[in-house]
User: Fold these one by one.
Assistant:
Number 1:
Amino acid sequence: MTPAPIPDYDDERLKSLHKLLILDTPPEERFDRIVAFAANEFDVPIALISLVDRDRQWFKARIGLDACETARDVSFCGHAVHSGDLFVVQDASRDRRFADNPLVTGAPHIRFYAGAPLQMPDGTILGTLCLIDTAPRQLDPVDVAILSTLRDLVMLEISGAPSHDNSRAEQV
């Protein structure tokens, strides 16, 4: 198993994450709806909003997973945070970075992972919106576009921006 590399800017990234005061907060319907939609849209058993802290990844919202956090050193999301781009593992059991990862060899038996980085306007990456499946698979360009849109919705919710456009209502 290859633990995710720690970005050079991790101290600043963690300051931004902690400043949001979102870690260890109760579940919120606005985030739960997004992961439920993602799980349904992509037909995956697990969808998460994962925030990568110093030693753990904590799940702000989750479908299909009982755990509320896992260690950062076994996280797929840590790799996505380091890469800064959509991070896709088509078959973790055949990927040397993950084949012996306990999340692959044991429950939840991850095979497919796609993590869209949750990036602040200043470039800080907080974590991911991720999809997990127990079977290998891949994303096509339409899937990538949908996942990117859902990621953008998560970031609107995190930033506190309104999630709908009121300008149309004012015109009526």
Number 2:
Amino acid sequence: MFIGALALVGLVVGSSLNVVIVRVPAGESAFSPRSKCPNCVTERSTRDSIPLLGWILLRGSCRTCAMPISVRFPIVELVTALVWAGLTAHAFAAGILGLLPLLLVSSAILIALFVIDLEHKRLPDALTYLMYPVAAVGLLVDGLITGSWQGGSALVGAGIWLMSIGGIWLLSGGRGMGMGDVKLAPTLGLILGWVGVGSSVVGLMSAWLIGGFVAITLMLTRRARKGTTIPFGPFLIVGFAVGLLFGADITEAYLDSLGL
């Protein structure tokens, strides 16, 4: 019941994220005014704004002018609900309930950053910098709840991610990596490092491997070529998810294979 309740809350959060995804890159307020159709400028009614159900009832188009409403809107809402449900289930299974508030809030920010980077090829400072206080407060809450403080490993994780992503940015003169990625990386490494340095390493390696695989695939299929800009933020976020969910198990299996 708790997981289901948070999934429903995730639907509502996903609806709000759609506003953030549209307005933040444009430099507009994410809080006001009410959402409007960009074609006829009609405000969306409360009924039409019901997460997921509103888009279905409207059949994917504006009630007034019939302008198509992107399928991205219900997808973001559904994905957010599934992510919140999955994170809650993982927190119960892994015994990290103290981290759950941080994971839920940070996942909402990261979903918005994921979509924005795909669409605009940039990570807005307004959201990237928000990850810093969210991570700090979330880890503090976990420490107070559990009495376990993993500050040292968290800083190691942040350093690993910063040196890797920042190093590429520095050595390439900003051509091989965006500054937005550099700003985001330490917070992801910090959270994973709190879980364990191994999780942080697995997350970072996963980001590189998945990013490299996608880049090679795009080049082989001629959907990209040398010099094509491929946003790396989504790969950082996916790598973070892999490190969070599977990092501890992968690290343990690797150490066991070495007899350690």
